[in-house]
Amino acid sequence: MHPRRSFPLLSLLLLISTAPYLTAANAATDCSKVACVDVRTENGRIVIEAKKGSGAVSETKKATPPTPKPAVTKPTTPKPVAKKPAPKKPAPKKPATKKPVAKKTVSTKAPTSLGDKLIEMVPTAGISYQPEYQPLIHVPVYFWCDLPDVFTKKVKIIGETIDVVMRPGFAWSFGDGSFKSTTDPGTSYPDGQITHTYSQPGTYIVTLITSWNGTFKHSGVERSITGDIKRTSLVTIKVVSAPSRFTR
């Protein structure tokens, strides 16, 4: 008897959670009937593109006939004929016949396709720390940034409404070889969760890399935004040693 292999629960949940997105993505491929929307990241920006409709129309127009110019008849001087009682009368001219005007078919392209492209920016973090002036070694320093837990944007493009939701993740480098990754923007003492204790005095460059990922919703369907956006923030901190006093 071979042991029965069970399908991993995590894979099953992943398949169930992504099934609506795959179905919706396959359904919205005909841009002539519904609006096609794509949201991605490009050069550190959110790029939103939308397209709707396609094709061209042709119409038949009747060409305007040119206005005929009146015919001008030059008078003719009869030559004198010897020994004839009367000059010959000029022969009457035949009336000019107008040619029928043909209709021309003119093909014009009509703006039946709508398309637009929008660019949105995410905020860049500012770093704060406490104590603000010359923190001491062996004493925790509290760090935080001024970014929100979530960045939302409602965009209207070619008559469609798109809801963009971006969430940040944070990677801290404290300048002495120590790192910390979190989704918490942090806060000041005493509730802050992002702290670091320096063991040596000196000047350190603290680096914060913010990574933005998110989703967008259109016509009730939520999809992932392709790519991510990274922002880098820096601050310089000077850590000092505590003064010593000898007593006896």
Q: Can you give a write-up of this model?
A:
- The protein has 248 residues and is mainly β.
- The protein has a domain at 28-57 and 112-239: Immunoglobulin-like (Sandwich).
- It is built from 1 helix and 14 strands, in the order αββββββββββββββ.
- Strands 8, 9, 10, 12, 13 and 14 form a 6-stranded antiparallel beta sheet that branches. Strands 1-2-5 form a 3-stranded antiparallel beta sheet, with no helix packed on it. Strands 6-7-11 form a 3-stranded antiparallel beta sheet, with no helix packed on it.
- A hairpin with a 5-residue loop joins strand 9 (160-173) and strand 10 (179-182).
- The longest helix is centred in the N-terminal third of the chain and has 19 residues, at 9-27.
- The termini are far apart.
- Mean pLDDT is 77; it is low at 1-28 and 55-66.
Quick structural summary:
The chain is mainly β and 248 residues long. It has one helix at 9-27; strands at residues 36-42, 45-52, 59-61, 104-106, 114-120, 127-130, 141-145, 151-157, 160-173, 179-182, 195-196, 202-218, 221-224, 229-239. It has one helix and 14 strands.
